[in-house]
Amino acid sequence: MNVDLLEKSARVIAGDAPPGEFGSIGLNEAPELHVLDDDIAFVAAFSNVAAFTAPDGASGAGGEDELLLIDVSSAFHGRTVHELVRSWTDAPLSTAVYTHGHTDHVGGITWFEQEATERGRHAPEVVAHERVVDRFDRYRMTAGYNGVINQRQFRLPEPWFPTEYRYPDRTYRGSATATVGDRTVELHHSRGETDDHTWAWIADRKVLCAGDMFIWVSPNCGNPQKVQRYPMEWAAGLRRMADLGAELLMPGHGPPIAGSDDIARVLGSAAEYLESITSQTLEMMNAGARLDDIVHTVRVPDELAGLPWLRPIYDEPEFVVHNIWRLYGGWYDGNPARLKPAPDAAVAAELATLAGGASVLAERARALAAEGDLRLAGHLAELAAQAAPGDSGVHAVRSEVFGARARAEASLMASGVFRWAARESADASGMTGDGPGSTDHGAGTADR
Asked: Residue 221, exposed/middle/buried by CB under 10 A (0-12, 13-18, 19+)?
C-alpha cells in the first residue's frame, strides 16, 4: 500500500500532525494517483475516485482484468482522472458506481465512454440509487438557480451549472450488488448529505467506499443554499459502516484511512456529532423554543469540536440546526412577524426613518464592526443598503462589514455568502476588486 499517504492520515487522526489543508484537492490543482495495492488505486481529486481491478471470472485463470470505479470525479478533472487510471491499468471499465448525483462525482464518466467507443469495447454500466434519476431531473429544472449558487459560493466569474447528465443504466432501492470480474461489491443506500447516497463495501478486501458520508470535515448537513439533508439517517449509516471492521476507508473527499480502529473512530465520532446536534435541537423544539433561540444555544461538545476530521470549515453546526428545524418543523421559525412579513425594503426604510437616515444605520454598523459585534453590524449594514440602495457611501460600509464577516468565518458556506455581499456593495459603491473582504476560499465548483 501507499504507506506515505496512509501514514499521514494516521498521524492526523492520532493528533501527531496538524490537519492544515488536509482534505480535497482543489479544481485548480492536479489530481494524484495513489496505488494502494496490486488491485486497488485511489485518485485524489476534488472528488476522489476509487479504482479496483478483478480478473474476468468467465475467462478463467489468466483472463483479462475488468475495472470498477466508485465515483468518476467531476467534468473538470475527468480527463486527468482518466489518464491517471490508464497509467495504472488498461483493463476495460466494466462498472462505474455513482455514490450520489452531485456533479463533482459524476461528470468524469465521459472520457471512459469515449474510450470504449474508440476501442470497440462495451460501454461501462453506470449503477446508482434510484433517486439519482430524480436529482438529475431536478438539476435540469433548477440549473439557473444552482448556477447562481455556485457563482456565489465558489467565486466564479459567472453562473455555471451543467444541464446534461449521464443517467444510470441500473438503479436500486435499499441495497444491491455489482459484480466486476470475480469480485462482488455490496451497494447500500443511506440518506445523509443527499437522499440518493450509496456507500460500497468490498467484503473480500475489507474496503469501504463512503462517498460523502465522510469527507474529513464536519458533516455537510446544513448547507444553507441546498436542499434537505438527513442527520439521524446519516448517523445511522455511519454507525453501520463503523461496525463492518473495514481495514481501508476511501472517502469522497480527502485521503484514505487504513486500520479498523481509526476507521471506526472517525465514523463513530462523526455519527455522534450529528446525533448531538439533532438531540439538542429536538429537545428545544419539543419545549416550544423558537428557531432563533435554538440557533444561539446548541453547541457541539468540546471533545467532538476539537477533532481534526470534524472541523467546521465547509459547513458548520449553526447551519445544521436550521436544517434540522426545516426537516422536523417546516419553514416557520416561531416569530409571528415573519409569517407574512412586509417587504424587507419597507422594513428597512421605516427603521432608517426612525434612526435619522440610512447613513446613521450604516455608521452604527461600522462602529459595531469595529467593536467586534459583526453579527449585529451585518443586520444594520443590510438595513441601510435596503433603505438606500443607490447610496454609494452606505454600500461602502456594507462592503466593509461583510468583508470583515467573510474574513472572520471559518466555513466556506458562510465566507462565500458574506464575500459575495461585500462584492455586490463594492461594485455598487464604485470600489475596485472584490471589496475589502476578498479572501478566496473557493477550491472549485461543485454541487455539495
From this structure: buried
Instruction: Answer whether CATH 3.30.1340.30 is correct for domain 342-429.
Output: no
- Helix, coil or strand: residue 404: helix
DSSP state of 271: H
What is the DSSP secondary structure assignment for residue 183, as one 8-state letter? E
Which mean pLDDT values do the consecutive 10-residue runs of the chain (448 residues) have? 82 90 73 96 96 80 84 96 98 98 97 98 97 98 95 86 97 97 97 98 97 97 96 98 98 96 98 98 98 98 96 96 98 98 98 98 98 98 98 98 98 95 95 54 51
> 52-87 pLDDT, tens per residue?
999 986 555 556 899 999 999 999 999 999 999 999
What sign has the CA pseudo-torsion 344, 345, 348, 350? negative
Sign of CA dihedral 80, 82, 87, 88: positive
DSSP 58: G
Nearest to 417 by CA among 147, 220, 218, 151: 151
- Give residues with Cβ within 8 angstroms of 274, minimum separation 6: 219, 221, 231, 232, 234, 235, 238, 320
Contact 385, 422 (CB under 8 A): no
* Predicted pLDDT at 206: 98
The torsion defined by the Cα of 253, 251, 185 and 96, in degrees rounded to 10, comes to 10
CA 171 – CA 160 distance, rounded (Å): 28
> 3-state SS of the chain: helix, strand, coil percent to 5?
45, 15, 40
Nearest to 422 by CA among 439, 434, 413: 434
Query: Which residues sit opposite 136 in a β-bridge?
Result: none
Residue 125 and residue 116: Cα distance in Å, rounded?
Answer: 11
* CB contact at 8 A, 223 and 263: no
What whole-number distance in Å separates Cα of residue 323 and Cα of residue 230?
8
| Sequence ranges of the domains in the chain | 3-274, 342-429
Residue 170 near residue 123, CB atoms below 8 Å: no
Architecture of the CATH domain 3-274: 4-Layer Sandwich (3.60)
Dihedral sign from CA coordinates of 353, 359, 364, 369: positive
Type of residue numbered 65: D
- 3-274 against 342-429: fold identical: no
